[in-house]
Amino acid sequence: MAANGWAGYLAANGADPGERLCTADFAGMLGHNVNLAAKAAAGRACSARLAAELGEAATASRYRAPAESFAADLLARAREGDATRLAFHLPGSWSLKHNMVWDRVLRLGLWPEAERRREMDFYRGKVGLYGCPLDSRASPGKPEWMLWAACLAEDRALFADFVERIVRYAEETPNRVPLSDLYFTDTGRKIGFQARSVLGGLFIGLLAEGR
Questions:
Q1: pLDDT, tens digit, for every residue of 95-108?
Q2: 36: number of CA atoms within 13 Å, CB side?
Q3: What is the pLDDT of residue 16?
Q4: Which residues in 27-128 belong to E strands, given as ranges?
Q5: Helix, coil or strand: residue 88
C-alpha cells in the first residue's frame, strides 16, 4: 500500500482540516471541521485494517497510530461540556458527529463508547419538530445523517424518536416531491435535494445492529 496515497493525505491534513467545502457546503466554507477530522481518523483506521488484512503489519501500525492520535486529539480539543464543537476554533458551536458511526459499525476502537453516548445524549436537547439540525448554524437537517448520529451507540429510544420525526416530515412537508434529504427541521420545507441515492443511508441501523 502506497504511503503517499489517500492514507498519506489524511495523515498530513486530517487532524485539523483547512478551510474547505464539505458535504454540508450549502452552509459555506469552514475550516477546522471536527466532523471531517472524525472522518479522517476513521479513514486512517480503515487503511490500517486493510494493510493488516494484506499481511503488511508494519504499514498497518504506521497507519493506525495517527488514527488513534487524531481520535484522542479530537476529544481533547473539541469537547465542550456535553457537546463537541462544530469546528475546533468555534466555542459554543456543535454539530452531528455522524462520521463517528463507522467506529461502531466497523469496530475500529477509536472512541470510548461512553464518549459516543455522551454525544448522542446531547442531541436530545437539539431536536426540532422534524428532526435534529446538522449543526448550530441553522435548522437544516439530513435524515440519513440523523440516523447515523442515532447509531453511535445502541440507544433504541433515540433512534425511534429520530425515525418518528423523519416520518412526520415525510407526511407533513408542504413540498409534495420524492423524499428530500435536506430540509428545514423546524418547518419541514425542503431545500432542493430530492429522490437522491444517499437516502440509502437511512438503513444504517441494519449495519449497526449487524456488527
A1: 999 999 999 999 99
A2: 22
A3: 83
A4: 79-80, 83-84
A5: coil
Phi, psi of 95 (to 5 degrees): -160, 160
**Cα 127 to the center of its chain, rounded Å:** 16
Residue 156 and residue 161: Cα distance in Å, rounded? Answer: 8
User: 183: which strand partners?
Assistant: 141, 190
Summarised one tens digit per residue, pLDDT across range 163-201 is: 999 999 999 999 999 999 999 999 999 998 999 999 999
Q: What's the rounded Cα separation, in Å, for the pair 54 and 12?
A: 23
Give residue 74's pLDDT: 95
Q: Is-contact 131 146, C-beta < 8 A?
A: yes
Q: What angle do CA 107, 111, 117 make, to 5 degrees?
A: 95
Q: Which residue has the cell 486493510?
A: 50
Which positions of the chain have pLDDT values less than 70? Answer: 1-4, 22-28, 210-211
CATH of domain 6-209: 1.50.10.10
At 19, list the grid cell: 478551510
pLDDT the model gives residue 210: 65
CB 42 within 8 A of CB 28: no
Rounded to an integer, what distance in angstroms lies between the CA atom of residue 181 and that of residue 76? 32
163-189 exposure pattern, b = at least 16 Cβ within 10 A, e = fewer: bebbeebeeebeeeeebbbbbbbeebe
pLDDT of residue 12: 81
